[in-house]
Fold this sequence. Notes:
Blueprint: H1 2-28, H2 34-39, H3 45-54, H4 61-73, H5 87-122, H6 127-140, H7 144-155, H8 180-209, H9 212-219, H10 224-236, H11 240-262, H12 267-276, H13 280-308, H14 310-315
Helix pairs in contact: 1-13, 5-6, 5-8, 5-11, 6-8, 7-8, 7-11, 8-10, 8-11, 11-12, 11-13, 12-13
Amino acid sequence: xxxxxxxxxxxxxxxxxxxxxxxxxxxxxxxxxxxxxxxxxxxxxxxxxxxxxxxxxxxxxxxxxxxxxxxxxxxxxxxxxxxxxxxxxxxxxxxxxxxxxxxxxxxxxxxxxxxxxxxxxxxxxxxxxxxxxxxxxxxxxxxxxxxxxxxxxxxxxxxxxxxxxxxxxxxxxxxxxxxxxxxxxxxxxxxxxxxxxxxxxxxxxxxxxxxxxxxxxxxxxxxxxxxxxxxxxxxxxxxxxxxxxxxxxxxxxxxxxxxxxxxxxxxxxxxxxxxxxxxxxxxxxxxxxxxxxxxxxxxxxxxxxxxxxxxxxxxx
Length: 316
């Protein structure tokens, strides 16, 4: 098991190294000059060249990449070109807001999706199963911004004005200080995640419910609810870990769109502003952070799948 974790950790580090090169190359390839974006279109070529020299943007790309990676390894995320302040200071509050939003959405959506999928498998081909499957298929085809706009129309306009259409978080406060600002963005992420996890859980539960050991538990006279929730569900959770990890990683990337729709003060809005302002250090850090979340979640999902699956543990 330790050797497996070590191999997966090494492969994760290799993936992150490759991603860092891709992120750096992609941000450098963005059209326009960061110095030109900071000074404005009316700036003279001499002023632009002087600012590029001051920001070390005229150095060879290999030197820029080496300096960037070296800074990251020493915990220095760089200086924002637009705000002229450390990236860590600029993003700290936004990272906490986004982490809280993803945590709320994940803690609600994952147990809810597992419960829906398990119950639908238990009541296979009955009204709840058919209805939940149809609703899941319809919701799965809706993009995040469509779900967000529909929720705004339903809960923040003339239909029901019970929640704010814009997630306004006052300066100096965090998302958990303004609960109403989190409800609609979290609900948007929840609606987009639940169908996938529920369908995978349903398929896994159906396979487990048709297995020999579950049939043996029934023959022993155990109540059906104990057979389903104590014997079948724990064994059906393993295959769902991968889709849970993908869903949580999707939330991390999906908040870019969701935060834009609700004007939520998180890393999504920060990434959008950084791209528009050609703020390369901020774009690079956020892109690498999102990629790192994907890699770490998949690593945890692999380990969790092995821990709950005896057959996989014995094959190591």
